[in-house]
Amino acid sequence: MRRDRQLAIVRESVAAGTCFVAAASGAIAGFVTWDRGFFNRPFVRLLAVAAAHRRRGLARALLERVERAALPDGELFVSTEEINGPMRSLLSAAGYEPSGSIDRINEPGNAELVYYKRLC
Predict the structure, then answer these.
(1) Which CATH number is 64's domain given?
(2) 113 close to 103: Cβ distance less than 8 angstroms
(3) What percentage of the chain reaches a pLDDT higher than 90?
(4) CA quadruple 80, 114, 105, 43: dihedral positive or negative?
(5) Is-contact 117 75, C-beta < 8 A?
(6) In 4-111, at which residue ranges do the beta strands (DSSP E only) sit?
């Protein structure tokens, strides 16, 4: 996803109140944005943690924050590129199940993998 599109997503999410931020030492260390635009179901649009703050549980905490917000919906969807091993590991450890894939949305040979979690 291009940087300008990512910035637009963050701005939209902040305006809608669907952006959560993790701070460390008074600075933003990570954020997550989500909405209900994936077939009218809750979907994580962006999840990012600054390199200096990775492997400390921030991504998991941000994902859990969205899960709490989406609890009334009973489910949450997330996607990641096939080549993103750390995100795939996080989703597996957090109880997400593969739901499908979308080909040709990224560069060839790098499908977008969709994951699902029941929130009950």
Answers:
(1) 3.40.630.30
(2) no
(3) 93
(4) negative
(5) yes
(6) 19-24, 27-38, 41-49, 75-81, 97-102
